[in-house]
Design goal:
By secondary structure, the protein is of the alpha/beta class. The protein has 14 helices and 8 strands. It has one domain: TIM Barrel (Alpha-Beta Barrel). The chain has an 8-stranded parallel barrel, surrounded by 8 helices. 48% of the residues are buried. The model has no long low-confidence stretch (mean pLDDT 97).
Length: 318
């Protein structure tokens, strides 16, 4: 078996892309999107028809231009998600507008709008994960959404502090950003390479996995944002891993042997202690973690900027 086939024995493989035509050959269970991935795909001529449909939907929306843009944006996300669900048998992750990352009830309102659009397309909410940035406000919004039967994927997650708050909120899934953690430490240390065994992003997922499994949390862990296949191989056994088409291809073309790096047995032996996470503890721990603080803010800014570019495209067509 190639390395990708071996990985699928231990971990649910998810495709990380908005370019759904590129994932069919790898047969992932699920797929994830974010504003940056949607933007990359939306600007390709082969997906113009999906953007045209979103623009037409916005034109028919009653209200001012701001409302038309918001509905056109939602429709763009849902159009890509709907096409992805024709390919993958499981779930698609669709992200809330990152500009709402510090607004609990606006996040909930946007998320419910996405779910209504999916349901109008005949897609059950059980096949959709609503992605929300793992700010304190985002986590509170996700807890409310979960109680309403809307499943969430807490994204832009960079440390155990965020992961514990998410698990306490009973979110469905968290997405630790392995590669972006690595990027920060490489820059901080002034190095070009850190081996997978010492990779801070990989070690962060190990820590979250051990905490969740030791204390029997049901929240799933999906490693994300990988920079190389070695990071992926070092996380075999994680609940899920979301992987770009480029790295899926590298894994498929590799025959390196693979064994699970994460197991419930190893987690049970962990000496980690349970943490009581309230808002003040969360904010203090985030303040004390410059990497997590900086990468969370940077990620929100980046996604917000890509959303503005998508909005500008829709606005020009209205």
């Amino acid at each position: 078996m190639n390395t990708l086939e071996q990985l699928k024995k231990y971990t649910t493989v998810v495709a990380d892309t908005g370019d759904f035509q590129s994932i069919e050959k790898y047969k992932p269970q699920d797929s994830t999107t974010n504003p940056s991935l949607i933007l990359q795909a939306a600007l390709k001529p082969k997906y113009k028809w999906l953007m045209d449909d979103a623009v037409n939907y916005a034109k028919k929306t009653k209200g001012d231009e701001k409302k038309k843009l918001r509905e056109g944006l939602k429709k763009t996300f849902v159009n890509f998600g709907t096409e992805i669900l024709k390919i993958v048998p499981g779930r698609v992750s669709t992200e809330v507008d990152a500009r709402l990352s510090f607004r609990i009830y606006d996040t909930i309102f946007f998320a419910k709008g996405l779910i209504r659009m999916y349901e109008k397309e005949g897609i059950s909410r059980d096949r959709v994960l609503i992605k929300v940035a793992a700010t304190w406000e985002g986590i509170q919004a996700a807890e409310i959404l979960e109680r309403d039967g809307i499943h969430t994927n807490l994204t832009l997650l960079f440390c155990l502090t965020q992961a514990i708050a998410c698990a306490d909120a009973k979110v469905t899934l968290v997405s630790p950003f392995v590669g972006r953690i690595l990027d920060w430490y490489k820059k901080e240390k002034g190095v070009d390479h850190i081996p997978a065994g010492q990779d801070p992003g990989v070690l962060s997922v190990h820590e979250i996995y051990h905490y969740y499994k030791k204390f029997d949390y049901k929240t799933e862990i999906m490693g994300a944002s990988f920079r190389n296949k070695e990071e992926i191989m070092a996380l075999a056994g994680c609940d899920l891993l979301t992987i770009s088409p480029k790295l899926l291809e590298e894994l498929e073309n590799s025959n390196e042997p693979l064994k699970p790096a994460l197991t419930p047995e190893s987690a049970a032996q962990s000496k980690m202690e349970k943490v009581n996470m309230d808002q003040m503890t969360f904010r203090w721990h985030m303040n004390e973690n410059p990497m997590a603080n900086e990468k969370l803010s940077e990620g929100i800014r980046r996604f917000s900027n890509d959303i503005r570019i998508l909005e500008k495209y829709i606005q020009e067509k209205l």
